[in-house]
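Can't paste images in this forum, so I'm doing it all in text. The chain is below; anyone willing to post the predicted structure tokens underneath?
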Amino acid sequence: MHSRWITGNDIQLLENGEEFFPRVFDSISKASREVIIETFILFEDKVGLELHEVLIAAARRGAQVDLTIDGFGSPDLSPQFISSLQEAGVRIHVFEPGKPLFGYRVNLLRRMHRKIVVVDAATAFVGGINYSADHLGDFGPEAKQDYAVEIHGPLVAEIHRFTHAALAQGQRFQRGLRAWWRGRRDLRSTSSELPPAGEAAAMLVVRDNTQHKGDIEHHYRVGLRAARHRIVIANAYFFPGYRFIKELKRAARRGVEVHLILQGQPDMPIVKTVAMMLYHQLIRAGVQIHEYCDRPLHGKVALVDDEWATVGSSNLDPLSLALNLEANVIIRDKAFNHRLYERLDHLMQHSCKHVTSEELGELKGWSLARSFVAYHFSRLYPGWANWLPRHAPRLMPAIDART
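Text version of the structure:
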């Protein structure tokens, strides 16, 4: 897949499960031909059960339904949950690279982290929201803050082609080379071009372990280099590479207003510890850091100036930027950029603590040593990540993956 700008799209920002789940479930409930879903996490809670219900209904209406989950992110679905989907005709695929050793998954660092939905090749959703109740406010203090987009227009055809290619690639081990090649050949007829639905130009950008290892980070850095007056990044796990940090500091030093919204109450305490190691050098360069404190931040969004924006599944850490399978949508549209800025500015004004150099104090002793190690670790991680075992996506039927 070659990332390219595609014009004529209508792209709507969806914030948290309260906006995302109703739109996805309503779209699936109207599906007549096809539903394709990729997700890292699917839990058997009230959200997962509602997805379960609409997928079964769609399959029984005659729609072809393909659901891909990650074996590490979605490990506890019951046999009844899986079998009822399969009996209705839903095809469940589990991303499970490598066989378990003594019942445990060995390769924890390679994950299918994408969150994509395509319905009837006409509507798509891309973002960071999983199918779990902790994306809803009524979950309590641990409810996640997150974002996704709903897409109509020509970009949907590109996303549709990508999801079919991912299924074909992942299933080649179980179907044999001839069946895989036939599936690849038939991709040309799976998606038809769609008429314009809006004014936004956009592209789907993915990270994989073959031809697109650094694409998402590359597009981020292109956006940072082009910035003239404003950058806002909200990201749950912030520990990018040296070149990314360098572009951020350069932007701030040439007068761009740079804001980072990071976790103040992370779901994993180590996240804040790691991010703190970079605070001093970023603030010294003029970057403004805001810690979101209402609840865990799970978002992966950014904007530059008044037109460029991105929403997706990719964090800004080594796991997402060098190891996971990820997908972001990059958007050029003033209306979308303005809407995203409104929501992020609201977070900064009402739900964040502004971190200052005075509060951090002077780096010395152990803190200085940690910062030095972290800084050079961030410089080197793309290199050491390349030494880790790489694999091509491998999908297994749900029942086979659980046995």
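The first strand starts at residue 6 and ends at 15. The chain has 14 helices and 16 strands.
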